[in-house]
């Protein structure tokens, strides 16, 4: 399997395309927005430059990686020869179900369809296709080229063979795939999101300020990034939508999103991507500086 299609050229999609391309796969990167495709390629180029500067890859590997990626705005054209499609479009159930219906029609019968969703049920996504045994979750972590984990989510009908193929493929990317079952939040977000939500609740209750909460968790718990900063990087809208999926899925108030998080998202303060969240990223190079510690 050498031909991969990646749907969505945003934060995660460009990282996933970068990673496959770096390990020699031919990647077709697909997005409805030409602007996002250009921005995605610019981000990949910048991240590769950083890797060259840190002597993690050679100039030649950078060139080869970029040559392995081509961009498309049409799903039908982009997935024509794909052995695997990794969907990393906006975290919205309707958008994903529509994409998987289209993929099921457009892809060859044997193509495996993976989703990078943070929270939407893989079993539900699979149910809109005629190949539920070939639908699986491949939950990469941000920033994809650096983070080792891929949470592999088995839907109710995902076959052993498909799971094994995706586990092996992830190892070819020098990642550590970890198999989990399909329940709201899977494992990573089921544990992470209540912690981020609690940090926001702690701020909302005036127990401490933003910097203080992050400092306690960074220096006291040896977390590389404070929870409020991490929420800004993930995107407050993404955090809210994951918490809502868990709240709905388990019907348990412990997952109820903090009112401050809800208000900030309503006000358009979604974190790094909007220029403001718990921190202000509009004037400073703060986001770039924090990211540089990790990439
Ligand atoms: N941001 C994170 O830290 C993170 C981590 C793990 C998983 N995820 C998951 O990855 C997925 C993508 O998240 P992101 O943060 O990269 O989002 P993003 O908003 O940065 O990018 C989403 C991209 O999808 C494109 N898109 C929307 N509808 C499309 C369609 N019909 N066809 C093709 N492209 C389409 C948009 O134009 C955009 O470029 C989500 O499911 C999210 O839950 C995000």
Describe what is shown at a glance.
It is built from 13 helices and eight strands. The protein is an alpha/beta fold and about 300 residues long.
Identify the overall geometry.
Answer: globular
Annotated CATH topology of the largest domain: Rossmann fold
- Strand arrangement within the widest β-sheet reads 3-2-1-4-5-6-7-8
State the low-pLDDT regions, or none.
none
Report what the structure shows.
- This protein starts with a strand and ends with a helix.
- The longest helix has 20 residues, at 34-53.
- It is globular, with a radius of gyration of 19 Å.
- The chain folds into 2 domains: 3-181, NAD(P)-binding Rossmann-like Domain (Rossmann fold), CATH 3.40.50; 191-292, Orthogonal Bundle (N-(1-d-carboxylethyl)-l-norvaline Dehydrogenase, domain 2), CATH 1.10.1040.
- 50% of the residues lie in helices and 14% in strands.
- Strand 1, helix 1 (11-22) and strand 2 form a beta-alpha-beta unit.
- Strands 3-2-1-4-5-6-7-8 form an 8-stranded mixed sheet, sandwiched between helices.
- With 295 residues, the chain is of the alpha/beta class.
- It has 13 helices and 8 strands.
- Helix 1 (11-22) packs across helix 2 and helix 8 (188-204) packs across helix 11 (236-250).
- The site of nicotinamide-adenine-dinucleotide has 26 residues, from helix 1 and helix 5.
């Amino acid at each position: 399997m050498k031909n991969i299609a990646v749907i969505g050229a945003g934060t995660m999609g460009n990282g996933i395309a970068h990673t496959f391309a770096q390990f020699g796969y031919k990647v077709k990167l697909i997005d409805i927005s030409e602007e996002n495709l250009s921005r995605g390629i610019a981000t990949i180029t910048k991240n590769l430059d950083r890797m060259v500067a840190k002597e993690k890859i050679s100039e030649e590997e950078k060139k080869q990686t970029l040559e392995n990626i081509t961009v498309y705005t049409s799903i039908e054209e982009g997935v024509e020869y794909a052995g695997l499609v990794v969907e990393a479009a906006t975290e919205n159930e309707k958008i994903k179900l529509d994409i998987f219906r289209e993929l099921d029609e457009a892809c060859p019968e044997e193509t495996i369809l993976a989703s990078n969703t943070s929270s939407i049920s893989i079993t539900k996504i699979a149910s809109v296709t005629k190949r539920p045994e070939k639908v699986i979750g491949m939950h990469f972590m941000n920033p994809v080229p650096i983070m080792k984990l891929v949470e592999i989510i088995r839907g109710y009908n995902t076959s052993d063979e498909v799971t094994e193929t995706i586990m092996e493929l992830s190892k070819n990317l020098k990642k550590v795939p970890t198999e989990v079952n399909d329940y709201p939040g899977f494992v990573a977000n089921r544990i992470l999101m209540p912690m981020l939500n609690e940090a926001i609740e702690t701020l909302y209750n005036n127990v401490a300020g933003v910097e203080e909460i992050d400092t306690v968790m960074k220096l006291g718990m040896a977390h590389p990034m404070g929870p409020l900063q991490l929420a800004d990087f993930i995107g407050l809208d993404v955090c809210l939508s994951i918490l809502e999926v868990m709240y709905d899925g388990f019907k348990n108030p412990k997952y109820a999103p903090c009112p401050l998080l809800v208000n900030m998202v309503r006000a358009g303060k979604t974190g790094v991507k909007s220029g403001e969240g718990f921190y202000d990223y509009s004037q400073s190079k703060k986001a770039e500086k924090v990211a540089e510690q990790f990439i």
